[in-house]
Every structure is written in C-alpha cells, then in structure tokens.
Amino acid sequence: MNQSEIRYALIEIISIIVEKDFVTLYNNDYLKRLNVDELQSEIIEYGGGLTLPPSKAFDDFDIYQINDNEINFDFNLWIDGEKSDLTLSCFLKKIDGILRYGVENIHIL
Questions:
Q1: How many whole angstroms from its chain centre is CA 10?
Q2: Does residue 10 contact residue 74 with C-beta atoms inside 8 Å?
Q3: Looking at the domain 3-108, which fold is it?
Q4: Per-residue pLDDT of the chain (109 residues; tens, 9 = 90+)
Q5: What string of H, E and C letters represents the secondary structure of the chain?
Q6: Other CB atoms within 10 A of residue 67 CB
Q7: 89 near 104, Cβ under 8 Å?
Q8: How far is Cα 53 from Cα 15, in angstroms, rounded to an integer?
Q9: Which of 49, 67, 84, 91 could form a cystine bridge with 102, CB 3.0-4.6 A?
C-alpha cells in the first residue's frame, strides 16, 4: 500500500464524515466496530461544524504500519476551518487489491 492510496482513502473517508453521512460511513466500514450512533456521538458532543481540511492537510497524519497490506492511522478532523484535537483513528487493509477501511474510534487526542 503506497502513500497515494492511503491519501485517496483518507480523503474519501473524511469527505463522508464532513457530509455527516454516518450511515454510508458505517455501511462501507470493513470492521463495523462502531455503530452509526457511536460514529456521530463524539462529533456532536465536540461541537462546531466539520469542514474539509486544505489539501496539504491530507499529507499530515500518523501512520502505524502493521504489514504491507495493513495500516492504522490517526487524522485530526477539522472543525470550523481549523485543525482540531478531535481525531479519527482508522484501519486500512488491502483485500484482493481493494483498500477497505475500519473506523476504530473518533475521539479527542
């Protein structure tokens, strides 16, 4: 899995979150560790409006390599046009050449 694949997946996931389409986020989630209510509750409690970060922000996240086909990453969500401490923790796995994600948590880091 290369950096551009990870970046593309991240942009897709963040776009779904910013649109507050938590049903799609859940339906596309490979792991389904969190239900729809759990996915949105931390965001609602945090307050403010989710916004898409600038393009360069998608190059600024922490990757934890598990193996060639699996990673975990943390990405700070943007609220009201600013980087926040509300963090998406996610798992990416390449299965049969397709990148799948699993949201592990949305929490304050």
A1: 6
A2: no
A3: Nuclear Transport Factor 2; Chain: A, (3.10.450)
A4: 888 889 999 999 999 999 999 999 999 999 999 999 999 998 999 999 999 999 999 988 889 989 989 999 999 999 999 999 999 999 999 999 899 999 999 999 8
A5: CCHHHHHHHHHHHHHHHHCCCHHHHHHCECCCCCCHHHHHHHHHHHCCCEECCCHHHHHCCEEEEEECCEEEEEEEEEECCEEEEEEEEEEEEEECCEEEEEEEEEEEC
A6: 9
A7: yes
A8: 10
A9: 91
Amino acid at residue number 46? Y
Task: Report the C-alpha gap between 36 and 76 in whole angstroms.
Answer: 20
16, two tokens: 């779904």
